[in-house]
Design a protein that fits this description.
This protein has 1393 residues and is mainly beta. The chain has four helices and 100 strands. Strands 59, 62, 63, 66, 67, 69, 72 and 73 form an eight-stranded mixed sheet that branches. Strands 68, 70, 71, 74, 75, 77, 79 and 80 form an eight-stranded mixed sheet that branches. A hairpin with an 8-residue loop joins strand 38 and strand 39. GO terms for molecular function: cell adhesion molecule binding. Its main location: membrane. This is Nephrin. InterPro entries: CD80_C2-set, Cell_adhesion_signaling, FN3_dom, FN3_sf, Ig-like_dom, Ig-like_dom_sf, Ig-like_fold, Ig_I-set.
Length: 1393
Amino acid sequence: MSPQSGTLFQSTRSPMANLLPIASLYLLLLLLLSASSVGALQHSERPTNVTVRTGDRLTLRCAIQNPTGQAVQVQWRAPNDDMLGFVRGVVPGFPRYSIVGDQTAGEYHLSIENVTLEDDGEFECQVLPSNGAQNQLRAGALVSVVVAPTKVTLGPAYRDGGNFEVNAGIDIQIACRGEYAKPAAQLVWYKNGEQITEGIHVAQNTAENRTVTTVSTLKWSARAGDHQAIFACDAVHPGLSGRQMRTNFTLNVLYPPGAPHIRGIDSDQVLSAGEPVNLVCSVENGNPAPTVQWYRNDKKIDSTFESDVGSKETRNEYSFIADANENGALYECRASNQPDQQPQVARVQLQVNHAPKAVEIRGPSMARQGETVRLECHSKPSHPPAMIAWMIDGRPMEGNAVIVKKTVDGTGSITVSNVSFVVAADERREIGVVCQAWNPVIDSPRVSLPVAIQVLYAPDPPVIYGFDGNSVVEGQQQQLTCVARGGNPLATLQWYIGNHKVTNGTQDTVSGDTAQSVFAFTADRTHNGGQFRCEARNHALDRALKANVTMRVLFAPKSVEVTALNKLRAGHPAQLFCDVSAANPSPVVIWTRNGEPLPGQLLHNKTGPDFGWEVRDALRFVPTAADDGANFKCTARHDAWDKEVSDLIAINVQYAPSFRKPGPLTVSVLVNESFVENMTVRAKPDAVAFEWFKDNVRFRSNGASITTDGGVLYANKVRRADAGVYTLVATNEEGSSNVSINVVVQFPAIVTKITSPVTVTLGERAILQCDAEGFPNKTGMIRWERDGVVLKSKEFANRAVLEIAFASANNSGSYSCVVNNGIGKEDRAEALLMVRRSPTIERGPQFGKGAAKIGFPLVLRCRASGVPEVDFIWKRMGGRGPRLENGTGFLITTQQIDHSTFESHLMIDEMKADNFKEIYECVARNALGADKFYVKVQPVDHPDIPSNVRLINVTDTTATIEWNPGFDGGSNQTFQVHYRPVGAGARSYIDVIPSEGRTRFTIPDLRPNHEYAVQVGAKNEIGNSGYQRDALIVRTLASDGSSGTPSIQTIKEEVPVMLILLVCIVGVILLILNICLVCCLMRRHKRKKLQASKRRETPAGASNGCAKHVTIQSPTKTAPREKTEIARRVEGPRPVQMYGATGDSMYATRPESVDTNRSEMANEAVSEDDQSVRTMIEVNPNGYVEKVNSQPQGYYVEDPNYMVQYDCDPRMYAETLRQNSLQRRIAAGAYAHIPYPVSGYPYEYADGEIADYNWLLQEPPPVGDYDVGQMGPLRSLNEQLDHYQPPPTAYAQIVPHNGVGGSLQRTRFPPPPSSYEMSPSPAVGRRVPTAVVQSSGSTPYAEVRPIMNNNHHHAADSTTPGSPVLSTFAHHNGLPRTKMEYADLEGLRGDLV
């Protein structure tokens, strides 16, 4: 509650606040009393502070004591300083104020009617003595006027008592105003009667009249639960006197509906066509009530819904009958109550099984005899897809293929079935075809469609009647009839004369299965030689059937004309021509001279107009003086005509000398050949003068190769200079005549000049020029070639120019200029084009790798092409270190292959294991740039498969192929050509010796016109490369060479069925053997475990098994690196892992990389798996390494501190040694340090402890250099040692035990010097190795070499081994790990075997 809300008419100050002014007043009065007389004025009742509501009545009390009764005046001062008094009753001018009370009692109370806000403030009661004395009395009181708020309203956006609409999730702010209250009104928020205490912000504004307007802002996040909630704002104020002042509004929250639910069908329910469906979509909640609509395939189909206000559920039901169109239909129920809101959606996709309604057959409705008919049957949509069956002429027929296609609308599937059949060659009836379709999962009738295929067949060839083949005289009437029988449909007939269709004068009729056409006409010369053709057509024919007759019409020529020269000279040939116009038959021409018949010459007899014969005949003769004025007549006649036609001409003749051989003449002769040409002359008179000219210059014989004699020209071994035109001039009185002889001397063409070499820059134009001469000088005589390919060039007279617009590296090389004019042999010359370019290294398979055996030299090749000259630099890969030079284990040479190709050889003097997998970098450079290439070094391996097998030539019995060899694997490779007939036939193999670059081979003895599959493989001393996966297919020519161009294709080699079957059988057998082997090994392993457990229970010395105990001790500073687990923690001794690697980790990788494989390490030897090194230490299967006990009996007892044990089978061990199968290609030895035994140990075995041992060692050998021959297999071990007599100081006596010989036992070493201090454990002190276990790599056995060092205190610092000693150790309890009696395997590299 605020201070203004206290009880009305009570002081608003606290009791302590009221006492303070009173105490001050009393103190003042006491002072006044002490200074004044006893009769002064004083208050008997003072006014007090009050709180009052506006409109109420208020009385402020003020009373005084006047003991002396002096006259006084009393007034009140209002808060606005108005003076109220001195008259009792209503104060003049202030009707609301009155002074009341008993005046005699000194009461001057102020009564205020209808209190207003103007009365708020301090009223002061003032008492003034009337005699003007200064002792005035004053007393004031505060009047607090309480003003109730005028109204409580909401903000301008809200209507009091109204509804406010808001979306759910939206934050709203509602302001409530309590206006003009004093004191400020308290505004309290309620929701549905419950007070709201959070999210309220209050602000106040004080007016000039000191009233306060309070604004309370409520921040509220609308939720769905707030829908229809009543929010009220109450004003709490003391001026309200318990009455309520409030405003409220109802919140209408708009919120989306819940997710719709579809009932009436399950998601996986399958309907049948015709089944009723009732879909019900229900949606709960939502304000306003949602609109629930049904959509089908995204199209609205129903908007009728109903809402239940009580349950707040809105439903929309949609019913329909399922049909084929409903299959796959997507029904969606969409619910929303806001236009801009994404609707809530529930979906269901219908599955309706329906049968096809019909089928459709597509294809031809007609077919010819022998033709294949292809039909398609398309079913209407069906779900699931329909089945289709065919009936051809009432017989079921299987379709070729069935295709199922989804319809575009997804309502079903269309099934398409294809069927094809061949119409019989003699079939002439229609073929009935029926297609049936049905749905296999529903019971529905089948739909079918029958169609009839009309069979088309050709009619019989037409026949023409009415013409007997005789000639027809021009003007006669003719009638031709064409008849065609049969055919479906009947034939259509059409007449043609030549190529012109006859459109008039024909009459067509049909009778039964016969079609007929009659053509009537009048014969004239235009029909002569014309072809009358009748064509019959129908749909069964691609080309018309034809019948034709050729008519011959006889008619005479219209004219004959003789022509001749106006002037004829004797001695000159003369001709008379007779031209006869068109006639039929061809006329006979008769020449007569003065009535005497002369033979004429038929120049031509050709077809003229109207297909008649136009004849031109000539009379050729040499006129004489007697012929001058003679009559020459030409007559044309024939027996078929009734008249002759002729023409006559008279001639005038003069003549002069003439040659029998009219010129000009041409004589072609090869150089150095001879000829004679005689030019005979006739003239009248006979006197004729001859004169020769050569090239228009007078020619005289001078004894050269060409001479003349009258009209004869002689040539003897002509020269090129003798060529020319020789002219003979003959002259008589009548005149002169001449004849020319062109003597042509032919000689072979040769190259006279060629530009070479030509050097250009890359991209620059290059021009090569070739000049040649020869006769005849033919076009195309000069050509440019490169590698046998003719290049396009420009030819100018005797010159050919080859122009390369933009020279590239590929253009560099040799070009050939070839000249040939058909005389003699062709001539050629070479031109060299050099294109300046940076080097390019050839990256063939033969260059990318190099291989050689260890200890042998290796040559790496690097070939590059470039202009100018190329030099080479060799480095190791990555450019590490300086460039390789001669004399550093390498020899580098360079040679030039051709004008732009250079090859460098890097020879490694001696291959070592370190070189394998090294990569060398070859850099080829010149002034224009450089190129680099990497060559990998690897061990000798089998060669790569040859590539690019191709056909070069083929005959009827041979085929020439060529291929590119691959990498030879590091040794000489040969090739094997494998070929066999395609389909069936025996395989044949031919070995081929390789050559540099491409390899070519001709396969002989092939069969003509056969296909062969050809493959090429390579092999060397390591193995075979295999063959190409795909074979080259080559077809040979036929025997007569008429089979055409051989076909070449590449197909995949088929694997024979028998081979596949054989591989499967072998695989099954191997699988069964593996299963049996695994079972045997498992049973054997269990048996060994049982035997091992029994041996542990057996006292020391009673064991006769093969358990090996080996202690593996690593250095103290570096942990061992293990490839496999070496030991497991088990109770008792731990078994050795038979495959693993131990050793100091500092030797694990090369310094250059931590990722180097162990097979790459320089300090490790090569092994079979290229990942590990195996060191084989021979251990006697019946012997053990043991600790020497200090017991006086010298027994060898079991020590419980042995670290490792392993088991073996003596029979398997002996067989392994016998077969020598433990051989390893180990390049470097592996070592193990064996310490001295402790001094004082006996070196004898107790008889009871060695009952199963083969050999007995009775005393140790001294330290020294022992020499024993290399160990051989176990079966010959004793034989090898029979001849060996060790020095007395070298070995102890070796005797067989119980007469049994088997394996040789290692002798013990002598004790170390007495000064040697033993360490309490292997990890402390110095180890003194006395021997080295070494594998030489050439034998499957290890060797033991003593350390050659006189100072045994520091023997561990020396690893110089001596001569080999046998390596088997005798002890059956293992090697103990106490003090120094252990095997130090620190330097061991590889796997224990």
